[in-house]
Amino acid sequence: MFKTGKRLLIAALAVSAPFFAGAVSAQDQGLISIIVNDNSNPYWFTEGKVARETAEELGYQANVSSHKGDTNAESRQIDTAITNQAKAIILDPANADGSIGAVRKAVDAGIPVFIVNAEINQQGLAEAQLVSNNAQGAALGAQQWVQEIGGEAKYVELKGAPSDNNAATRSNGYETVLSQYPSLERVGVDVANWDRTQGYNKMQSLLQANPNIQGVISGNDEMALGAIAALKEAGKLDDVVVGGFDGSPDAVDAVKAGEMAYTVLQPVAIFSEQAVRMADEYIRTGETGLSEEKHLFDCLLVTADNVDQYTAPFVLAQQ
Q1: Ordered strands of the 215-218 beta sheet
Q2: pLDDT in tens, 284-309
Q3: How high is the pLDDT of residue 312?
Q4: Alpha carbon distance 231, 250 (integer Å)
Q5: Domain spans in the chain, listed from the N-terminal domain onward
Q6: CA–CA distance, 164 with 167 (Å, rounded to integer)
Q7: The CATH number of the domain covering residues in 134-265
Q8: Which residue from 59, 39, 6, 46 is spatially nearest to 279, judged by alpha carbons?
Q9: Cβ(295)–Cβ(128) under 8 Å?
Q10: How far are the Cα atoms of 7, 124, 164 from residue 121, in angstroms, in the given order?
């Protein structure tokens, strides 16, 4: 695990060095199609933006579309990439199982696919799967949450979309840590599908059933921010510790404001850029430069003590 932001950036650059070395600046290298989940979410917006800018820097045309978790929309977007003769597809899949067919369709058409952020449940189709180390990040967040709340409390959990393996991985990671504290009691849990509005609505319901909770642990920042809005409305935020996951700009602001105890930052800007550079390497040489298909990126903890280091969305300032 990296202990400082600077070490994370140095390590990430070292991992991606082969792809920087082979980069070219010639124009019109062809199309790279970038498919993310939901551009209205700042995390996925950053993912698409960084990937597009990197592709254009390398001389490719690039477009970004979003499927919003709909595998039918995702399949149509893959069809469009095939029709447009994309050189490569950067895909944040809609569903760990349900996206396999769309990936296979692209591969059968001769288009290499590079998975980012959320994995698919089949090896050997995508050229690479670049994802955050969600288990490590969840453990990091849960440990901080316990430190903030103490060893005795009643709490609720907000979970992400069940179709995304990240939701289960994070929830299991929380459970692994929190189960070590018998006096921590989870009195409610609900699925809010990574969404702020659903987080708000589900938090209202959870509060009605459990008005005296002391904590909320959330699978991502958007759900946590929705929970914060509901807690504010109920006049209970000062008495409840809320933890998030992603490192979104709004979450960083909430940490600064003392409304969110912490957020776990996923290095989305790093792995989105690397996926495109890897695609460029593969287009030119037929190699990815990785020894294994799946590559994990460790997460970082953003707290009141270090929040001033985070000056841009999902990017750690070098200090």
Answers
A1: 184-191, 153-159, 215-218, 241-246, 262-265, 300-303
A2: 999 998 999 999 999 999 999 999 98
A3: 52
A4: 16
A5: 5-131+268-297, 134-265
A6: 6
A7: 3.40.50.2300
A8: 59
A9: yes
A10: 31, 10, 10
Task: Give me the CATH code for the 5-131+268-297 domain, please.
Answer: 3.40.50.2300
- Measure the N-to-C terminal CA separation of the chain; round to a whole number of Å: 19
Residue 3: the pLDDT is 33
- Residue 217's beta-bridge partner residues? 157, 243
Instruction: Read off the pLDDT of residues 115-160 as tens digits, 9 standing for 90 and up.
Output: 999 999 999 999 999 999 999 999 999 999 999 999 899 999 999 9
Which residues partner with 153 through β-bridges?
184
If you ran DSSP here, which 8-state letter would residue 266 be given? Answer: P
Structure tokens at 187: 């009195």
Alpha carbon separation from 247 to 42, 219, 253, 312 (Å, rounded): 10, 12, 10, 10
Q: What is the pLDDT of residues 215-259, one digit of tens each?
A: 999 999 999 999 999 999 999 999 999 999 999 889 999 999 999
Q: What is the pLDDT of residues 149-192, one digit of tens each?
A: 998 999 999 999 998 999 999 999 999 999 999 999 999 999 99
Instruction: Please give the structure tokens belonging to residue 118.
Output: 């959320």
Residue whose token pair is 């469009």:
80
pLDDT for 28 equals: 81
Q: Which two tokens stand for residue 230?
A: 């509901």
Q: The whole model's pTM is what?
A: 0.80
> Which pLDDT belongs to residue 306?
95
- The rounded distance, in Å, linking the Cα atoms of 298 and 23 is 25
Domains 5-131+268-297 and 134-265 share a fold: yes
CA distance 261 to 147: 10
Two tokens, residue 143 = 């440990």
CA dihedral 69, 112, 165, 310 (to 10 degrees): -80
